[in-house]
Amino acid sequence: ELIGFKNVDLVEKELKTFRKLKNFWVAKNFSALKEGLING
Fold first, then answer.
1. Please, what's the largest Cα pairwise distance for the chain?
2. C-alpha count within 13 angstroms, C-beta hemisphere, residue 34
3. Per-residue pLDDT at 39
4. Which of 38, 14, 18, 16 is nearest to 26 (CA)?
C-alpha cells in the first residue's frame, strides 16, 4: 500500500511536469501561429 501511495505521488508529479511542458509548447506554437496570421 505504501508503494502504491509513492507511485501515485510520482505520477502526479509527472503529470504536473507534462502539463507545464504542454502549456509551454501550446503557448510557443500559439504565438508562432499568431505571428504567421499577422505577417501572412
1. 57
2. 6
3. 78
4. 18
For the chain, the distance separating the N- and C-terminal CA atoms, rounded to the nearest angstrom, is 57
Q: What span, in angstroms and rounded, lies between the C-alpha atoms of 40 and 27?
A: 19
Average model confidence (pLDDT) for the chain? 85
Average pLDDT over residues 11-30: 92
Q: CA 2 to CA 8: how far, in whole Å?
A: 10
Q: pLDDT confidence of 7, banded at 50, 70, 90?
A: confident
pLDDT for the residue 18 = 93
Count of alpha carbons within 13 Å of 10, Cβ hemisphere only? 6
